[in-house]
Amino acid sequence: MAQPQSNKTHWFVVSIGMFRHVLSRVGSGGSADSRRYWRNAFAAVFLLAALLMAFAAASGQQIPFVTFIPNGVFFPNPSGASETYNTMGGGIDMTGPFFQSLGSNGRSCATCHQPSDGMSIAAANVQRRFLLTQGLDPIFRTVDGSNCNHNIDVSTLAGRSAAHSLLRTRGLIRVAIAVPVNADYRVVSVNNPYGCNESDVISQYRRPLPATNLRFLSAVMFDGRESSAATGTTKIQYSNYPNSLLNDLTHQSIDATTGHAQGDGTRPTPAEQQQIVNFEMGLSTAQIIDNYAGRLDAHGATGGPLPLTNQLFFIGINSSVRFLLPPPQYNHEPPGGLVTPGDGQFTSAIFNPFDAWASMPHNSPRAAIARGQAIFNSKPINITGVAGINDDVSAGGLVSGGIASLQGTCGTCHDTPNVGNHSFPTPLNIGTGDPNPSNSSVNLGGLDVSYLPSITVCKLDLTTTPPTPTSNCKTTTDLGQALIDGRFDHVGRIKGPILRGLSARAPYFHNGSAQTLLDAVHFYEKHFGLVLTPEEESDLVAFLSSL
Questions:
Q1: Rounded (10°) angle between helices 16-25 and 32-59
Q2: Residue 343, number of CB atoms within 10 A of its CB
Q3: Measured distance CA(280)–CA(99) in Å, rounded
Q4: Distance (Å, rounded) from C-alpha 542 to C-alpha 372?
Q5: How confident is the model at residue 253, as a pLDDT?
Q6: Sign of the CA dihedral running 320, 325, 327, 329
Q7: CA distance 449 to 433
Q8: Residue 413 CA neighbour count, 13 Å, CB half
Q9: Whole-angstrom distance, CA of residue 256 vs CA of residue 208
Q10: Residue 523 — pLDDT band, cuts 50, 70, 90?
Q11: For residue 274, which of 298, 256, 239, 247 has the smallest C-alpha distance?
């Protein structure tokens, strides 16, 4: 079966042995001249690969011998290189249904979940795909790849460039979801700069989540819609994991094909659904090479994807909330525990891959990564105004009456050991999608959101017939969980993503508002008052880049 054009453009592996040899030598020691030689060789190999990929794309030729990417292949990114390891089959088989066009528009799962981009998409690489294919790659389909799906002209290159600007520059897919009929709010206004101003079906713009490290998920999709009774799927809980996760991923494979790929429902077949889920569940992805520190699994460090294949996980593992608010203050989540469920253990040291580098000389790039890890694990953050934490339990918060302030760390919301998502379903609104009341062009952390729609919803007075909007209103750029379960209290709440492989998939946050990891750090500084010195900022970014 012919591969979709997106696969032809991006799957080119040049001299696997050369990749491994060159990359194993980068930053691994030796003289400065030796390291410089190997870095230049590294760059030359990838330049050759890029040129050959460009030629293949421009000529429209297949690269028929690239059907399998073995474990151990590294994918370059601005911070170094990532690696994806598959516990099944020894690598990535690109002939399976994950890489096949199962719908009507030429897309496959891999169109938006690229091995080169940490099984997601990096905006910079989307822009390259646009240039190489003149905007004709299957990712640029108006069903959801354009800023709006009506009143657009994609007949010219300029028209396609404008229509797909959010996908090209922020890596955003348009997610259009109907307002639930039983919603306890009304959408009173939508100001969408691209023309999708409908108030019954809301267009929102989100980054594709990575299709890797999935066994650590506590919810599927940013808004949890593939793990919700509202969509006929199952909330992932300690008592039903992993079957609930597997069933939700199966359902998601169908929805993605009928939606993004515009399928007719006949595919994926049950057998193909199982193949897709098995493939996804076998993948682990992490950064393996850092531009300055070299290999991230050297000198006692345990970076890279291989340790993730044996990382312990269960729903509620290392529950930060249960530790900070022990029963009876909060008694609504799984049993917690660090080694076995309910063992009462907790560690704020969420990440430990770079412990061995902590004693290295201060000016060592490896020491900087270790310092950044320590900042992530231990720097205090005063958590206030976060829906899902600080609000009343009736609105989805932690305790009755709410909690005005919670002293935590990065790990309070990123508590899964060595992975960094939340270990049980906890959608939160930390303000990445909420406009600043004094300047609506930026969010609560000062990042630009002027490219996103402004959506105002008001809670309904359900005692009137018909229900009428009250003066209790919220303005946001993304309704989040509220567009799934219809609850006003859940406006803007989304799940936190897994933090491994970040360098492969910029920009960050669900709406791409953080162009860089430093932007993401600045968000927390401005919104939550996190106080960092310039060196601490740099160290934290070095750590996040190495995940």
A1: 150
A2: 11
A3: 12
A4: 7
A5: 98
A6: negative
A7: 8
A8: 24
A9: 11
A10: very high
A11: 247
Q: Which amino acid is at 32?
A: A
- Cβ(36)–Cβ(66) below 8 Å: no
Positive or negative, the CA dihedral 513, 396, 382, 440 is positive
Chain-centre distance for alpha carbon 127: 19
Instruction: Write the burial class of residue 533 (CB in 10 Å: 0-12 exposed, 13-18 middle, 19+ buried).
Output: exposed
**Rounded to 10 degrees, what is the CA torsion of 174, 177, 178, 183?**
-130
Query: What is the CA angle 293-297-300, rounded to 5?
Result: 95
Tokens of 381: 């953050």
Where does residue 91 rank: exposed (0-12), middle (13-18), buried (19+ CB within 10 A)? Answer: middle
Range of lowest pLDDT (60-64, 183-187, 210-214, 395-399)? 60-64
Residue carrying structure tokens 């953080």: 514
Q: How far is CA 202 from the centre of its chain?
A: 21
**Pair of tokens at residue 463:** 């005692």
Rounded-to-integer distance, Cα 49 and Cα 45, Å: 6
Name residue, tokens 């009250």.
470
What's the average model confidence in pLDDT over 171-177?
98
Amino acid at 292: Y
Answer yes or no: are the C-beta atoms of 350 and 416 closer than 8 Å. Answer: yes
CA–CA gap between residue 547 and residue 531 (Å, rounded): 22
Cα three-residue angle 219-307-93, rounded to 5 degrees = 75
Q: Give pLDDT, residue 398.
A: 87
Extract the tokens encoding 196.
Answer: 């999708």
User: Percent of the chain having pLDDT more than 70?
Assistant: 88
Rounded distance between C-alpha atoms, residue 440 and residue 454, angstroms: 9
For residue 392, what is the DSSP state? B
What single-letter amino acid sits at 344?
G
Burial class (CB in 10 A: 0-12, 13-18, 19+), 463: exposed
- Residue 9: pLDDT over 50: no
- Which residues, 6 or more positions from 64, have their beta carbon under 8 angstroms from its beta carbon? none
Helix boundaries (H) for 350-495: 365-378, 410-413, 482-485
Tally Cβ neighbours within 10 Å of residue 192: 20
Q: What are 430-459's pLDDT values in tens digits?
A: 999 999 999 999 999 999 999 999 999 999
What distance in Å separates the CA atoms of residue 387 and residue 489, rounded to the nearest whole number? Answer: 8
**Is 379 in a helix, a strand, or coil?**
coil
Measure the CA–CA gap between 298 and 366, rounded to whole angstroms: 10
pTM score, whole prediction: 0.91
341/142 Cα distance (integer angstroms)? 46
- Judged on CB neighbours under 10 Å (0-12, 13-18, 19+), 518 is middle
Distances (CA, A) of 520 to 297, 349, 451, 507, 541: 25, 21, 17, 9, 9
- Between CA 292 and CA 543 the distance in angstroms is 12
